[in-house]
């Protein structure tokens, strides 16, 4: 069930409100971005901050409000504020914006984020799951716009694995805002523990965090000399470091990404078989490792999804994007998808946003 009704291709046709602007907030565990956006002129300004998680949630909320107020003050001199939109890590109950126990943000559970922001700012705020916001950005300003598609599913590979579904231009929130939690699809019976409390979810196998975890497991096993040498040289190694090692031909590093691709393929097959959408996008910080994980991902997808086998695009289809085919591609907007989607949220009807 969707509660958001987007005006068709809102950034382009909303000419009667050309002098309006929105403020979008991309709230992450590491970075906090506040941007002003106009359908006519695009992004007007962006303010970057570090998310002060160690100082507690009140300090982070205060930073959000300070950044929002400063942007509103500057832009209101020449434009009219439409509203404030925010993409937040989930699970988050919508439309109220109540945060539950966030696997990657301990201590934030129980915060009524929307009500808290509206009280401090004195203006309407629309809250969305950050992965939904990223999917919305890709649909209206990214790959969906490029291809002329208004329905897609997006997986974001970062600290966790996020998922967002756009159906005919609407965010598919579900009954409580919990739809699209692809990172918590169960792909391995009795698999690794997940931050959500379950076992065998997509997230412990296909996130950026999982790359480090599986590298450490292989090192601890004692038969991955390349990974062990990398970790000895740099104990704080990143997923990108593992990717560089894999690109150099290290078999153990390559296996990590092959396993990651397999996990993604299993999750994607469930999405393709259930949703039958024209476009599935992979985004997030691991996108630069596409060549390392994509072959295994597509092999698994072909093996597990008969819908994909029926609708797999040919080489010619990939060049022309013929209708009736299932396309699995890299997202187009990179790290900007989330805050651009947040900027778009106020350009929904307030009545629908409040339902």
Write a structural description:
The structure is a single chain. With about 350 residues, this protein is an alpha/beta fold. It folds into 2 domains: about 10-135 and about 340-355, 2-Layer Sandwich (Nucleotidyltransferase, domain 5); about 145-330, ATPase, nucleotide binding domain (Nucleotidyltransferase, domain 5). The chain is about 40% helix and about 20% strand. A 5-stranded mixed sheet has the order 3-2-1-4-7, sandwiched between helices. Strands 10-9-8-11-12 form a 5-stranded mixed sheet, with helices on both faces. Helix 10 (about 250-275) crosses helix 11 (about 290-305). Mean pLDDT is about 90; it is low at about 1-15 and about 350-355.
Short description:
The chain is an alpha/beta fold and 355 residues long. It has 15 helices and 12 strands.
The termini sit apart by 11 Å
* Fourth CATH level, the homologous superfamily of the largest domain: ATPase, nucleotide binding domain
Strand order of the largest sheet: 3-2-1-4-7
* Rg of Cα set: 20 Å
Count every beta strand, where a strand is a DSSP E run of 2 or more residues.
Answer: 12
- Rough outline: globular
Task: Please give the count of helices.
Answer: 15
Average pLDDT, rounded to a whole number, is 89
CATH topology of the largest domain: Nucleotidyltransferase, domain 5
Helix/sheet category: alpha/beta
Which ranges are low-confidence, i.e. pLDDT below 50, for 5 or more consecutive residues? Answer: 1-14, 349-355
* Fraction of residues in β-strands: 15-25%
């Amino acid at each position: 069930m969707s509660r958001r009704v987007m005006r068709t291709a809102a950034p382009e046709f909303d000419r009667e409100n050309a002098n309006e602007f929105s403020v979008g907030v991309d709230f992450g565990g590491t970075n906090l971005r506040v941007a002003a956006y106009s359908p006519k002129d695009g992004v007007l300004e962006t303010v970057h901050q570090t998310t002060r998680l160690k100082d507690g949630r009140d300090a982070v909320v205060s930073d959000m409000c300070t950044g929002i107020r400063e942007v509103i003050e500057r832009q209101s001199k020449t434009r009219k504020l439409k509203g404030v939109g925010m993409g937040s890590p989930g699970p988050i109950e919508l439309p109220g914006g109540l945060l539950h126990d966030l696997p990657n943000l301990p201590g934030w559970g129980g915060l009524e984020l929307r009500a808290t922001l509206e009280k401090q700012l004195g203006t309407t705020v629309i809250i969305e799951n950050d992965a939904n916001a990223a999917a919305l950005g890709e649909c209206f300003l990214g790959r969906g716009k490029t291809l002329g598609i208004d329905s897609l599913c997006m997986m974001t590979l970062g600290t966790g694995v996020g998922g967002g579904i756009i159906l005919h231009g609407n965010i598919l929130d579900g009954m409580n805002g919990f739809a699209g939690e692809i990172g918590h699809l169960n792909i391995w019976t009795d698999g690794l523990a997940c931050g959500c409390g379950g076992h065998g979810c997509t997230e412990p196998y296909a996130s950026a965090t999982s790359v480090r975890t599986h590298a450490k497991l292989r090192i601890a096993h004692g038969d991955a000399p390349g990974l062990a040498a990398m970790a000895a040289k740099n104990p704080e190694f990143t997923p990108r470091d593992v990717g560089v090692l894999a690109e150099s031909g290290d078999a153990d590093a390559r296996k990590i990404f092959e396993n990651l691709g397999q996990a993604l393929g299993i999750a994607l097959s469930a999405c393709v078989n259930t949703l039958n959408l024209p476009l599935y996008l992979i985004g997030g910080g691991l996108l630069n490792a596409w060549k390392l994980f994509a072959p295994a991902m597509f092999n698994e997808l072909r093996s597990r999804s008969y819908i994909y086998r029926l609708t797999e695009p040919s080489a010619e289809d990939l060049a022309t994007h013929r209708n009736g085919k299932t396309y699995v591609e890299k997202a187009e907007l990179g790290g900007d998808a989330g805050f651009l989607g947040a900027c778009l949220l106020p350009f929904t009807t307030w009545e629908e946003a409040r339902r």
